[in-house]
Amino acid sequence: MLNRPKAKAPPPQPPEDEVEYDSVPDLREHIYRLAHRIAQRHELDRYLHSWDHGVGYLIELPAMRDVESGRPARQWIWWTLLAVSEALARDAHRQHLPGNYELPHLAKESPDTVRSRMGSPVYPRIAMEFWSDPSVPDADIHDFVQLIQLCRQLRKTATERNMDLWEG
């Protein structure tokens, strides 16, 4: 009787946060899922929406009742998700935003409304009160680092393909 070759074990799969995605839609989907996971932990997920442009998501200004929870980390989470989304980054991007996405217009026309609800993004304070605070869960720090890495990978992929992320 002939010996059958032993079945090869499948190659080990890298952890999800080390997977390289090749397509812009796959990267956007993964970025959205990760941003949603972060937002969900801080009860901001109802304000985060998937989008097929930019980095793959947009975040709305939360209702006042959701901000007045006595959880200051929630404001830092929101500001960081907003910054990473790039929705307010450039005027040229605004023409590609959905018509019902009001935050860029509100931030430009009535910045005091945004600041009164979400505070001001004093970035040195975010380092002291959020990123370096030992009470912030490691999962938040890990997920934000991964989110930024994925956004960088998305931009590199788009550049290699001569693609404008804001046009599609």
Task: Provide a quick synopsis of the model.
By secondary structure, this protein is mainly α.
Task: Characterise this structure.
Residues 1-21 are annotated as: Disordered. The longest helix is centred in the last third of the chain and has 23 residues, at 138-160. The protein is 52% helix and 4% strand. The protein has one domain (22-160). A hairpin with a 6-residue loop joins strand 1 and strand 2. It is globular. It contains 8 helices and 2 strands, in the order H-E-E-H-H-H-H-H-H-H. The protein has a two-stranded antiparallel ribbon. It has 168 residues and is mainly alpha-helical.
Would you spell out the secondary-structure blueprint of this structure?
Layout: H1 24-41, E1 48-50, E2 57-59, H2 64-67, H3 72-85, H4 91-94, H5 103-109, H6 111-118, H7 123-131, H8 138-160
Antiparallel strand pairs: 1-2
Helix pairs in contact: 1-8, 5-6
Key phrases:
disordered N terminus; two-stranded antiparallel ribbon; mainly alpha; 4% strand; 52% helix; 168 residues
Query: What is the CA-atom radius of gyration, in angstroms?
Result: 19 Å
The structural class is: mainly alpha
Strand order of the largest sheet: 1-2
Tally of DSSP β-strands: 2
Shape: globular
The termini sit apart by 59 Å
Low-confidence stretches: 1-14
Oligomer category = single chain
Helix fraction?
A: 40-55%
Query: How many structural units, i.e. domains?
Result: 1
pLDDT averaged over residues? 79
Which strand-content bin applies to the residues? under 5%
* SS field, number of helical segments: 8
Order of helices and strands: HEEHHHHHHH
The largest sheet is: 2 strands, antiparallel
